[in-house]
Design brief:
3 copies of one chain form a homotrimer. Chain A is built from 14 helices and 4 strands. By secondary structure, chain A is an all-alpha fold. Chain A has a single domain, classed as Ammonium transporter fold, CATH 1.10.3430. In chain A, helix 1 packs parallel to helix 5, helix 3 crosses helix 4 and helix 11 packs antiparallel against helix 12. Chains A and C meet through helix 1, strand 1, helix 2, helix 3 and helix 4 of A and helix 2, helix 7, helix 8, strand 3 and helix 11 of C.
């Protein structure tokens, strides 16, 4: 009656042990740096009263949303939600340290720091989606440590470089979603192996897809909080919430409308993969223009295009990416975060020009170009490092998409 | 080891294809209407700062609460949560359009619009509960499109007709719960077929009932937000939250006390159906009197009566409805939303008279009468339309309570 | 394809029937007391606007967090989440009555009352964790009724006794966590039986452990709200949130670092039990010092020590407790709430001395000593009463860790 966890191949033992020491080392460094450097508690500022509620919504998106969205694989549930948990926690600690360095050793911590930690974690977890089931947790933690440095470099430059002053990306279409997706895809290309194709255990089952819907729906519901949290003006915050809410409804309806075109039997049935992912594309694509007065009609347009393009991406681009470019993208982050992130940037240029206002299109384009460059270069470098930390034997022989490699249970035998 | 989705009968293919075009058509209409009509963003008003948190709680109730509550059927999990997702999103878009028409073509969108969208979606999803597993998604979307028109007609009349000025229904016992339940039951009567009886796949299993508890508990927890969100005064909002919280605790305890009387073995064991549903009746029944100073004693009385009546409804009225009136009510919305909704209206009259104050009992009765009339007439008409959009062959032969009719998965073969 | 619930032994029928009458009696008492005593609605005070959001987070922790955390047992899912639901609701009603008595018959109800109800429920549900699967629901409700009296006695003394004036425990390390754990462990010792060892059904399976992660992660995410809700100053509330958030991240990373040392194969794989529980120890251990300016470095130290000690507790102390002291602790509440609760008190003394300030170490020690004394004496007395309310035959013969004893389903046969 009870389902059991699979068999353990023993090839991951070295990876498992190295992870222990890496995490213990990280704790020692975090304690040393955060205790002896100059950190302080921020004032009760503009953010104080309402931002905490928004923060908790974003927190749910990162740890329940991303975590459960990735539980769709039938033998990789514990790793999906467990490694998501670990990577998110590592990202929080490590972002403090990296942020401290970018602030020249002096850090004032407030609710704003907390949601910046979550955004950095979000970028790492998007990249995790591209690699899900194929690499060890050791490799993932190494990825997170490197990715946050590149992420911070890109975000810091975009916010502080005079050439990009005034660019708009309140919801992080570029800075978070496109960055995380292309970073992960670049790493996945480096780590590509023919073993990733047609792996016996890469697939969902009936109940794991239902667990994944928990993730999807929490992401979908709380996205207006994600996009509006950096905005301190209450009036604009309401605009962002309305735009994001409306675009997400439109993306959901459109994904259901378009998913059936991919039914191999010609029966126009729904594909769970599209529903779990493309419904969210409206939130991603709204990120760069959410604070503009695009109207609910504009929001329906953005959401509908994003939902349709993302669904078609799963039906068409996903295979091309794998076969032509040798990039295996387990969760399809290219279709959920990559393309919709770029679309978000483009929408901001188009609506910025249509509506007038102070948005300068080439600054958006410059940040997009910089984001993609840093993501792809950084992801490639990180992929090489990830390859180096695990022996060729482990990489070749450990079971793919299998929890038993990294999880022990007494009832296993 | 992995559970698979069931077999596909192919009778739903036409329904599936028509749904695609209906949804695409809806997007075209939404874009045209919402882009070219006069919509604007509301001011940062009374609601602005705190209402967003309440809105998110309600949002979770609609999409996680209702969605997972309906996952109890063993072969209909994806449709439960997936169609709930689709219908909710359709309701949001369509409510904008209907609201625009009722506002004579000029709509100011604010957090209040967002939670009104959710309330309209809630009514549709209650009706969905009566029909769960028996009709196609095409029929459900058609239902939502019609239901929101009738819902808005009833709500608009109750709020703007001088005869009903001053009626009280802050939590929507009548306007949302009773309306949604009787609308769905009326449609279910029209769509009744002997095939709905003793269908092999109508039943829960051990894990799907656990998924359903996710829905139950999120609904139960966030109900105080649902009932208090329309109230702008902080003092009264606290009263509503306390009353609702207390009534829900009482309904939960009472449902556990009374459920065992239905055990067929005379062993007084709990029935999961009662726990999933009757525990929530306290929130429904508190809707019309939540803003009165009934005291926590009064709240325990309302919650206890509602919990007991709802549980007994599942034990006794459910069968009568089916056998005498030929109404098949998959989720028992009559016992969760119908009777407790009417009770809520009655409680408001009783407490209004006991406590004095400005509530006029016959206005409550008038709104209740109007609500039931519009729901039953509207539900019957909508049932006829739903019957017309699907061929007799599909209705007769497609598998009931079976996801495979509408969902495709590669691992299915 | 569908999993079924197990067989029913019939030994629980008397327990089931007595529970019905106990719950009905409780409702009669609650209605009488709460209607006729002097209760009123509190003013819209300091707490009003923001506290409601914090309250809802705590509410999720109690009903989803604790409820799903305990679903890990493979045949006891419904009881885990269902009895958690029942006990929580009983605790809310009963706490009103006990609080009324401690307030000499006059109670003003506000958001603060609501979160105090939740804290009392939390203590009971921690104790439930020690007893999970071994006692009937009748015994659990009896436990909750007694425990809340002892809990209130301890909390009231700590807050109002002049000897303890000025003690600090904003997040309840002592008052809630240590109290609940040692109360439950004392009761478990009284109720010990050799049958509790090696029971065939005590164990998790692959999917139930995934349900348990829903509970873990909601507890982990919302813990900053739990610790900060009693604080009315916005600046200090932000400090508490930052400290708790940081300690939880550190506890998570450390639990993952240390769990592998327990792998019986020497392969350093993760143990799901540790991840589900020890990751939370950072929140418990931060409870008494969360409002101090310990810095994020201090928070990482507290979280890391708590996470490591808790994980090692599961690996080492758990067996000793069972074999030497004859205490069977199903969920390991000793490692999650007991030891980290005591650690929390110790950390507050250490940081209080290091940082200076007005905290007096011996007041912390006095409250800790009082808490442990009342918990252990109260738990022992309550254990005797729990033993008395169920016949020796039922206690000896009913199936352990089996839902079918208390739940009926039509599809069972």
């Amino acid at each position: 009656m009870s389902e059991q966890i699979g068999k353990y191949s023993d090839y991951s033992a070295t990876s498992n042990k190295r992870l222990q020491y890496l995490l213990l080392g990280l704790q020692v460094i975090a304690i040393a740096v955060l205790t002896f450097c100059d950190t302080s508690y921020g004032e009760a500022d503009d953010y104080t009263e309402w931002a905490y509620g928004h923060f908790q919504d974003v927190h749910v998106m990162i740890f329940i949303g991303f975590g459960f969205l990735m539980t769709f694989l039938k033998h990789y549930n514990w790793s999906a939600v467990g490694f998501n948990f670990l990577l998110g926690a590592v990202a929080i600690e490590w972002y403090y340290i990296v942020d401290l360095i970018f602030h020249k050793g002096s850090l004032s911590v407030s609710y704003a720091t907390m949601f910046n930690c979550e955004f950095a974690a979000g970028a790492c977890l998007i990249s995790f989606g591209a690699l899900l089931g194929k690499v060890s947790h050791l490799q993932l933690v190494v990825m997170a440590l490197f990715e946050i440095i590149f992420y911070k470099l890109n975000e810091h430059t975009a916010l502080h470089w005079e050439q990009t002053a005034g660019f708009r990306d309140v919801g992080g279409s570029m800075i978070i979603h496109a960055f995380g997706a292309y970073f992960g895809l670049a790493a996945s290309k480096v780590l590509y192996s023919d073993r990733h194709l047609n792996a016996a255990k890469e697939g969902a089952d009936y109940k794991t897809d239902l667990f994944a819907m928990i993730g999807t729906i929490f992401l979908w519901m709380y996205w207006p909080s994600f996009n509006s949290i950096p905005e301190t003006d209450a009036y604009t915050r309401q605009i962002i919430a309305i735009n994001t809410y409306t675009a997400l409804a439109a993306a959901c309806v459109t994904a259901f409308a378009v998913t059936g075109f991919g039914d191999k039997h010609g029966s126009a049935r729904f594909d769970m993969v599209h529903i779990q992912n493309a419904t969210l594309a409206g939130g991603v694509a709204m990120g760069s223009s959410a604070d503009m007065k695009i109207g609910i009609g504009g929001a329906v347009i953005i959401g509908s295009i994003a939902g349709a393009v993302s669904t078609l991406g799963y039906q068409m681009i996903h295979e091309i990416l794998l076969e032509k470019l040798k990039i295996h993208d387990t969760c399809g982050v290219h279709n959920l975060h990559g393309i919709p992130g770029i679309l978000g940037s483009v929408f901001s240029m188009v609506f910025g020009m249509v509506l007038g206002g102070d948005l300068i299109w080439w600054k958006q384009a410059l940040v997009l170009w910089m984001t993609l460059s840093i993501a792809i270069v950084g992801g490639t470098i990180t992929g090489w490092v990830m390859k180096a930390v695990v022996s060729a034997e482990e990489a070749d022989k450990k079971e793919l998409f299998e929890d038993a490699e990294h999880w022990e249970k007494e009832h296993e035998e």
